[in-house]
Design brief:
This protein has about 150 residues and is α+β, with helices and mostly antiparallel strands. The chain contains 5 helices and 9 strands. It has a single domain, classed as Restriction endonuclease-like alpha-beta roll domain (Restriction endonuclease-like alpha-beta roll fold), CATH 3.10.640.
Length: about 150
Amino acid sequence: MMVRLVALAIHAHMLQTVCNGDGVLAFGAGLSDPNDPDVWLKDFSDQTRLWIEVGQPEEKPISKACGKSDEVFVYAFHHAADVWWKGIENKLSRLSNLQVYRIPSQISQQLATFAQRTMHLQATIQDGHLLISDGAQSIEVICERWK
């Protein structure tokens, strides 16, 4: 859940820069619907402009997403993400509208400590770095680009 929040925060600017404010940036159905992204941006003509997957999705759903959306981002965060990437990297190389990032597992574990029943978080992005704070502590999230 927290990595989905990070992805939403990182791409929040796209609502303005891509859709000129005329769109919706929202969480998808996630686990309850495998054909739905974790986060998406749609303009008011119902065109999917941004599709975000979190975790280690298989090649087929990523390829389908690249056909349905202008841009696709994957944020891998599990400690086994390196193994997943080595196994799938060559299969995804032809997808020009795909970007893959890794959030180090220690950062994702720190983010998990923010998960509460009621949360008040602040996100600040500066120079490509995301800082998430709950008022008592802050975590800097630096994503490593793989593709």
